[in-house]
Amino acid sequence: MTTTAFRFDNTYARELQGFFVPWKPAAAPAPQLLYLNRELAAELGLDAAALDGEAGAALFAGNALPEGAEPIAQAYAGHQFGGFSPQLGDGRALLLGEVIDRLGRRRDIAFKGSGRTPFSRGGDGKAGVGPMLREVLVGEGVHALGIPTTRALAVAGTGESVFRERVLPGAVLTRVALSHLRVGTFQFFSARGDIDKLRQLVDYAVARHDPDLVDAPDRVLGLLRRVAERQALLVAQWMNVGFIHGVMNTDNMTISGETIDYGPCAFMEAYDPDAKFSSIDHGGRYAYSNQPLIARWNLARLAEALLPLMAGDESEAAIAEAVARATEVIDAFPGLYAAALLRGQRAKLGLLSATPADDEGDTALAGSWLDLLHAHAVDFTLGWRRLADAADGNDAPLRALFGDAPEALEAWLARWRARCAAEGGDAAARAAGMRRVSPWIIPRNHLVEEALEAASDRGDLQPLQRMLAALQRPFEELAEHARHAEPAPQAVTACYRTFCGT
After folding, report:
1. How far apart are CA 498 and CA 113, in angstroms?
2. In a 3-state reduction of DSSP, which class is residue 449?
3. Domains in the chain: boundaries
4. CB within 8 Å of 271: residues ≥ 6 apart
5. Considering Cα of 389, then 393, then 397, then 400, what sign does the dihedral take?
């Protein structure tokens, strides 16, 4: 069943008074619907056809709020590049409400770029067409790769200008998420010593994301453990496709385990553990190889925020016990991450079965492969993809990526083939399985920029639409999408920088 109406059931606004400020989006002078995610609309039980045209433009620009919406600006804090800000909050976003989708999942519907709020801290609360369409391209690309992520339902142009490094056309993004609860949400109330609200928030988060823990006596520790598990899996998936989030502040880490806030994000091309693209990440805090380390650091900040509830009272003994139990969870994270990373790497290596006894050898095999990619500046995505060709008996495409380094490659291939032979299996089936997990297409940075420039500067949405069509089928080698599989020229990649868009 589809409908033009959002069937809102707004538990956050109803149950968490004092956690937000009711607010209205700014009016847009000339709304224009630039993008509508029809697949996602269907998931939400909406009639996409009825959301097209002027009606959809007015709705998604914030001029005509759907019935049942209760727009609120959520409060949260956060560590940004290691420095703590006790009050951040939705400075240019509004949670409209929650709906139950066709699979029974509760999903947030939120605006981004809808104008000033009480949390704007001097900003204009607006967003540009380019940064909002970046969320579409990269978010949908990540979704098609099977990685948990928030998704863009729509982008509407506002008909007004936004002033950043230069003048940009304005836009509003409508984002769908399992929730917008962040590590920073818990930090906000913990930093204020508001234990009652902190407890209320934990109860809400557990009921929403981990309902089996509702009656557990150690549900606070249980929540921390579940968040750690979800983040370990998420970051391992990022690493196995070469995704760099770019701004892993604690206000950008979700409790749900979804990727959120596609600002200075990018996909790595030539493999480099130190790769970073964000213009504001001068020291490489959020570089590719640091992402699992930062995830653990952020989880430690969540543990600190939850500590008063885990302790139960302020006695030294209670606090010491709570610290010890939380530390166990934080210290277990590297193992959770390493296991998730290795599972993904084994699938990409075509290793169909393994025992714990294989872990050390398989980790070394994967590590040596990455070292080889790094030493010869091989494209991360195509390196893995052409390894699948080698599994199918065709080494030539892989050798072509390595140029004049046949000896190093041959030595590694011999080790890999010996490991594959030890477990047996059909070569064609192995190669097919590898192609199901190693994409041919990712959101190539130069093509993202090309599509965004066309949309922002010329109002031309065709490059965006072509790129979306390619990204939706990342594991299929189709001739019509060949351009989207090609890396950028090295000169382009060497100076590529991304920006937050705030």
Report:
1. 19
2. helix
3. 11-180, 184-346, 350-502
4. 242, 370, 373, 374, 377, 378, 379, 380, 383
5. positive
**Main-chain dihedrals φ then ψ at residue 163, nearest 5 degrees:** -105, 115
Q: By the 8 A CB rule, do 255 and 178 touch?
A: no
**How far is residue 2 CA from its own chain's centroid?**
28
Please write the tens of the pLDDT for every residue from 238-274: 999 999 999 999 999 999 999 999 999 999 999 999 9
On whether the CB atoms of residues 484 and 141 are closer than 8 A, the answer is: no
Edge-to-edge strands of the sheet including 32-36?
20-22, 72-74, 93-100, 106-112, 167-177, 151-163, 32-36
Q: Where are the alpha helices (DSSP H) in 181-315?
A: 183-191, 195-209, 219-241, 291-311
DSSP codes of every residue in 381-393: HHHHHHHHHHHTT
83: helix, coil or strand?
strand
The whole-angstrom separation of Cα 203 and Cα 133 is: 35
Among residues of the chain, what percentage have pLDDT more than 90?
Answer: 89
Catalytic annotation on 251? yes
- What pLDDT is attached to residue 406? 77
Crossing angle of the two packed helices 291-311 and 195-209, in degrees rounded to 10:
120
Residue 192: how many other CB atoms lie within 10 Å? 14
Options 90, 108, 251, 261, the catalytic residue: 251
pTM: 0.96
- pLDDT bin (cut points 50, 70, 90) of residue 314 is confident
3-state secondary structure 135-159: HHHHHHHHHHCCCCECEEEEEEEEE
Q: Is the pLDDT of residue 425 over 90?
A: no
pLDDT one-digit tens code per residue, 9-49:
999 999 999 999 999 999 999 999 999 999 999 999 999 99
